[in-house]
Amino acid sequence: MSFELPAAHRELLERARQTADKVRWHAGDADAATDVDPVMREALQASGLVSVTVPAAHGGASETVDPLAVTVVREAFGGVSAHLDSLFAMQGIGSYALSVAGSRRVQEEWLPRVLAVEAIAALCLTEPDVGSDLRSITTTVAERDGELVLDGHKSFITNAPAAAFFTVLAKEEAGYSLVFVPADTPGVTVTSGPDLIAPHVIGEVRFEGVRVPLDSRVGQPGQAFPLVLQTLASFRVSVAGSAVGLAQAALDEAVAHTTGREQFGQPLARLGPIPQMLGTCWMEVEQARLLTYSAASKAAADPQGALHWSSMAKVAATETASRVADRCVQMTGRFGVVTGSTIERLYRNARPMRIYEGGNEVLLGQLAKTLTRPAR
Ligand SMILES: Cc1cc2nc3c(=O)[nH]c(=O)nc-3n(C[C@H](O)[C@H](O)[C@H](O)COP(=O)(O)OP(=O)(O)OC[C@H]3O[C@@H](n4cnc5c(N)ncnc54)[C@H](O)[C@@H]3O)c2cc1C
């Protein structure tokens, strides 16, 4: 089997690369930011690329969100700036449930602003005491006097300090619902932080007696998990795209350094184990890219049916990015550990990828269950 990107996706990758190249000069500053960076936001707005994260019915590029399209854009962005990559991806991840099942009022009022990157989106699942085990959440929503009332505390929420709205997972009676909450609703409090090893726009969001109209519930009462699953099925594989882009960028840095610097009268690239490290990195990046493209094209055809492929690609590519970035730091010697160098930034940016959008161990456990499930 061979896998080549379709022409439309090659063009999209090229467009995204051009967008990222224009802001490469600013990537170091943006990746140190803990609030949305205006240069990156403007570049994203000018590119129009957020349209690949929203279905055509709401102004997006294709009938349903195309995971391969999101993946190739993230490949281009992930190799240049984690901040740009996150800003792009979260517009889709934070709004997807609204596109699929939000009320007409919410869709018409908010999705055009998401597309234009005027309204920054956020998805609130995690809580101080709840990470992987989402069914243990304690945030609640209840119908009272013709409104929805939300109480709880969400933690580690990407974009929280800048978000215009939150899509919130909450317990509703015996089930779970998703609720759309504008950030300026009374009772919503946002605090920035914590500071991460790879700085990120992140924060804590508290909901205290927050009242929103009934049509702020996304989909039917108790139907949150199918919607969360649909979001993951469309976007999880794109984390792999970002990881492949990052790994390739780290390898490019190592190639430039090891061919440009001589020790013992020879380029580093010809010395001792360096050729093996370069060859191994190249092989692993291409392995990860192939699995990622293949999984994303399967997800494009059937997002939920291909979720195990998306999980495999996410684990494989993010583990590859960490390994490759680590080797590339080693190959660049002391220059690779200088704060502010590109390789040092890529090394730090690789680390959180193995934790968010499904911890890699959790995904491997789910894969094992799928693999060993008795045939019906
Ligand atoms: C940069 C960043 C951005 C984030 N953005 C968001 C966001 O926008 N919205 C949001 O809701 N959350 C967000 N999160 C939180 C993220 O979703 C959680 O970190 C993730 O779900 C894992 O939860 P946890 O960190 O509490 O780890 P835990 O669930 O406590 O897990 C700790 C470790 O144990 C492993 N583990 C857990 N359960 C199992 C199991 N059953 N089998 C095997 N291993 C297991 C995990 O893989 C992990 O290695 C973000 C996190 C980071 C780092």
UniProtKB/TrEMBL annotation:
Residues 8-117 form the Acyl-CoA dehydrogenase/oxidase N-terminal domain. Pfam families: Acyl-CoA_dh_1, Acyl-CoA_dh_M, Acyl-CoA_dh_N. One of its GO terms (molecular function) is flavin adenine dinucleotide binding. Keywords: FAD, Flavoprotein, Oxidoreductase. GO terms for cellular component: cytoplasm. Residues 122-194 form the Acyl-CoA oxidase/dehydrogenase middle domain. GO terms for biological process: fatty acid beta-oxidation using acyl-CoA dehydrogenase. InterPro entries: Acyl-CoA_dehydrogenase, Acyl-CoA_Oxase/DH_mid-dom, Acyl-CoA_Oxase/DH_mid-dom_sf, AcylCo_DH-like_C, AcylCo_DH/oxidase_C, AcylCoA_DH/ox_N, AcylCoA_DH/ox_N_sf, AcylCoA_DH/oxidase_NM_dom_sf. Residues 225-371 form the Acyl-CoA dehydrogenase/oxidase C-terminal domain. Its cofactor is FAD. Belongs to the acyl-CoA dehydrogenase family. This is Acyl-CoA dehydrogenase. The lineage of its organism: Bacteria, Bacillati, Actinomycetota, Actinomycetes, Geodermatophilales.
